[in-house]
Specification:
The protein is of the alpha+beta class. The protein has two helices and twelve strands. The strands form three sheets. A five-stranded antiparallel sheet has the order 8-9-10-11-12, with no helix packed on it. Strands 3-2-1-7 form a four-stranded mixed sheet, with no helix packed on it. β2 and β3 form a beta hairpin. The longest helix has about 40 residues. The protein is rod-shaped. The relative contact order is 0.09.
Length: about 200
């Protein structure tokens, strides 16, 4: 049997011929040497009462000259977060995690700034239409978008104003003031009353 033992902060992970058993260090009650080559890790409770391993089968983190040598190293593993080359790995992992967390914080801040800018841009876009089309008497289309938005881009809020027998209706494409329509499609869009509460927007 080939046994590998990995020290992973609060866990000890044992790999027996490719099969993994992970135990919490806090569960370990004792590490005992038995007859011959055997060493037992006593868990005291739970489904897995103990783990018994021959020290001669352990190949990682290194080969051991005796069961007492393995016992000493296991006790050191249990007493610390990590050891040996594993310590470097964990420090590198923690450093990477902290760097990622910091980067995510920066990204969240930038996204917040972008969101504020977009909202301000959209609010300013409603102040006056970018384009106005009066294809026939009594019908006016007003297109709201950021300056330099192409008429083929789906970044328009389009208002249709229709007057008939002295009654004027204000309807928005898709029934909302979202900037998600194409100005070039204004004649074929579905116009509905908007229930927006934004001041100055009907």
């Amino acid at each position: 049997m080939i046994i590998e033992i990995y020290n992973e902060l609060s866990l000890l992970r044992f790999v027996f011929n490719g099969n993994t058993v992970a135990i919490n260090k806090a569960q370990v009650k004792a590490v005992e040497t038995l007859k011959g080559e055997l060493l037992r890790i006593d868990l005291g409770e739970g489904v897995l009462k103990h783990i018994t391993i021959p020290y001669t089968d352990v190949t990682y983190p290194r080969l051991y000259a005796s069961r007492d040598e393995l016992k000493t190293e296991l006790l050191q593993m249990l007493a610390s977060g990590s050891m040996g080359s594993l310590n470097t790995d964990h420090l590198a992992t923690l450093a990477n995690q902290e760097e990622i967390i910091n980067l995510l914080g920066v990204m969240a801040g930038k996204l917040g700034d972008i969101n504020v800018s977009i909202q301000a841009l959209h609010q300013n876009s409603y102040s006056s239409p970018l384009l106005v089309d009066e294809p026939e008497p009594g019908i006016t289309y007003k297109g709201y978008a950021a300056v330099n938005t192409l008429t083929s881009e789906p970044n328009w809020a389009i208002l249709r104003i229709k007057s008939d027998n002295g009654i004027t209706s204000y309807k928005w494409a898709d029934g909302n003031t979202s900037f998600d329509n194409i100005w070039d499609d204004r004649y074929t869009l579905n116009y509905l009353h908007s229930f927006t509460t934004d001041p100055g927007i009907r």
